[in-house]
């Protein structure tokens, strides 16, 4: 039975993450870049100024909402989204890309991220525009909402939109237990056992207790924890990687030369024919890039939609920064650590080290930090992976309540916490494979929605650019629903 499931899964996974899936993601990124007139390039200074540049200048960005206000701050929404995206993919995923696709895979990871910025931007714009409030006053948004009310709003597409919304929610729900829970927890437990000799069962019990305290407290508690955890874990890891960068700064030309040569298979990853080398570099670069920043999967939009922001484009810009921080910064630093420390022959692109996954990154860090290197990576994976679990718990809750209703959320939360223990103690190769598939299947209905609604995204973007950048007097486009449109106008005047 297991072999049958594995065979079916491999076929579906190959279809989703093969040429079709990669092409769909890439095409979506190009379309959203074109229709929005290259917003990530043409307004680079604007979105930097209004995201990371505004954190220390605009108190509204980080200000917490009142006790009775169920929304979270823009910074909290970013941190919760980054909690889910900055994870094992930034360590294990980058290592896997280099092992399987050679140094050139990093170039194609960058390309996927550059276009993925606008896919993520578009998802968040649609998320804010089509979101609704729950009976408790919490914002609910995500692909299921813009599929139902956006795509479903086109003539003759009502039932198509509803069906795709349900499919997305089902795939998201299943993925939350796999890639968002068991797979992450299994990585934590395995690394804690190998680095510190902590039994997997002990790790499982501790993680269940901590997760229960946070997750059962709702989104505001999850956001409060990730708001503190994400900056700390990111800064610690980035500092460690930067130390390696500056110690090996003389290797910068050789590393970037290897990346660009490998990208176009001047020397292929496996020393084989040129076409095959390019294919491997592109496939693994795109695949790992997509898993790292999740642009196009429709996941992070569910937490971005809970922000207290009124302007869809403002939250869209946080989506651009999310991909930029995850892939262009963190993944690049991981790649440099591997490529500059002798793990790979930079002339041929062939692997010298026999380590895999987190072990390869740990070995790279050990060249500078000695025996503490692998322990440092184990701690980084603990923080990265657990924060991913917290972020994905909200995605799963959102999908659950869409299918089963608001009043049953507690059932999902209890199930999610219980599964953590099994994730720590079970052998989960099949779970990893299944979670890859369901995570990828989320992409298909989501991108159908994003691409079909691209004219609307372009219209909302132009409206914002005309008002906020060019100073024109126009009626803002804040929400699909009149009551939220009017509610947002007063608050929008304060932006």
How many strand segments? 2
Strand content: under 5%
Cα distance, first to last residue? Answer: 57 Å
Mean pLDDT: 81
Query: Main beta sheet: strand number and arrangement?
Result: 2 strands, antiparallel
Structural class: mainly alpha
Shape: globular
Weakly predicted, low-confidence segments: 267-276
Number of helical regions? 22
Order of helices and strands, N to C?
Answer: HHHHHHHHEEHHHHHHHHHHHHHH
Fraction of residues in helix: over 70%
What is the spatial order of strands in the main beta sheet?
A: 1-2
* Rg of Cα set: 22 Å
Kindly summarize this structure in a few lines:
With 495 residues, this protein is an all-alpha fold. It has 22 helices and 2 strands.
How would you describe this structure to a colleague?
The protein is an all-alpha fold. The chain is 74% helix and 1% strand. The protein has 22 helices and two strands. It has helices at residues 2-17, 19-35, 39-42, 44-49, 59-62, 74-85, 92-101, 104-130, 143-149, 158-196, 200-215, 219-247, 252-263, 274-293, 301-304, 312-339, 358-369, 372-404, 409-425, 429-452, 454-469, 482-492; strands spanning 132-133, 139-140. It has a two-stranded antiparallel ribbon. Helix 10 (158-196) packs antiparallel against helix 20 (429-452) and helix 17 (358-369) runs antiparallel to helix 18.
């Amino acid at each position: 039975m297991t072999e049958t499931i594995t065979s079916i899964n491999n076929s579906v996974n190959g279809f989703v993450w093969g040429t079709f899936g990669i092409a769909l993601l890439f095409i979506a990124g190009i379309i959203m870049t074109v229709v929005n007139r290259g917003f990530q390039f043409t307004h680079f200074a604007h979105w930097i100024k209004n995201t990371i540049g505004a954190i220390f200048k605009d108190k509204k960005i980080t200000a917490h909402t009142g006790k009775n206000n169920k929304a979270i701050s823009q910074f909290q929404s970013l941190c919760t989204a980054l909690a889910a995206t900055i994870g094992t993919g930034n360590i294990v995923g980058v290592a896997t890309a280099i092992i399987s696709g050679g140094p050139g895979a990093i170039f194609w990871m960058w390309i996927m991220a550059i276009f993925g910025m606008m896919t993520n931007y578009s998802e968040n714009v649609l998320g804010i525009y089509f979101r609704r409030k729950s009976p408790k006053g919490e914002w609910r948004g995500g692909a299921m909402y813009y599929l139902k009310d956006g795509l479903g709003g086109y003539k003759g597409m009502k039932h198509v939109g509803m069906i795709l919304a349900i499919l997305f929610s089902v795939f998201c729900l299943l993925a939350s237990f796999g890639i968002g829970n068991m797979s992450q927890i299994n990585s934590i437990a395995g690394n804690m056992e190998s680095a510190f000799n902590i039994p997997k069962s002990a790790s499982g019990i501790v993680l269940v207790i901590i997760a229960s305290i946070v997750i059962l407290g709702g989104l505001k508690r999850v956001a409060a924890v990730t708001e503190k955890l994400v900056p700390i874990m990111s800064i610690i890891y980035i500092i460690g990687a930067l130390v390696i960068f500056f110690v090996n700064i003389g290797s910068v030309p050789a590393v970037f030369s290897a990346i660009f040569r490998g990208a176009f298979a001047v020397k292929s990853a496996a020393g084989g024919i040129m076409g095959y080398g390019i294919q491997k570099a592109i496939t693994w670069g795109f695949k790992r890039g997509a898993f790292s920043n999740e642009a196009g999967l429709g996941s992070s939009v569910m937490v971005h939609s809970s922000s207290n922001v009124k302007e869809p484009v403002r939250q869209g810009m946080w989506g651009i920064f999310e991909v930029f921080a995850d892939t262009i910064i963190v993944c690049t630093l991981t790649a440099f650590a591997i490529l500059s420390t002798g793990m790979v022959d930079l002339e041929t692109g062939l692997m010298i080290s026999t380590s895999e996954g987190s072990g390869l990154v740990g070995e790279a860090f050990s060249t500078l930090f000695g025996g503490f290197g692998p322990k440092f990576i184990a701690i980084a994976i603990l923080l990265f992976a657990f924060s991913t679990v917290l972020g994905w718990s909200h995605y799963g809750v959102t999908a659950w309540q869409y299918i089963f209703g608001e009043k049953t959320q507690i059932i999902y939360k209890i199930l999610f916490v219980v599964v953590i223990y099994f994730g720590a103690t079970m052998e989960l190769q099949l779970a990893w494979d299944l979670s890859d598939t369901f995570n990828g299947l989320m992409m298909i209905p989501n991108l159908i929605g994003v691409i079909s609604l691209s004219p609307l995204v372009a219209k909302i973007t132009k409206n914002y650019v005309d008002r906020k950048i060019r100073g024109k007097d126009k009626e803002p486009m804040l929400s699909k629903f009149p009551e939220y449109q009017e509610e947002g106008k007063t608050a929008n005047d304060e932006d």
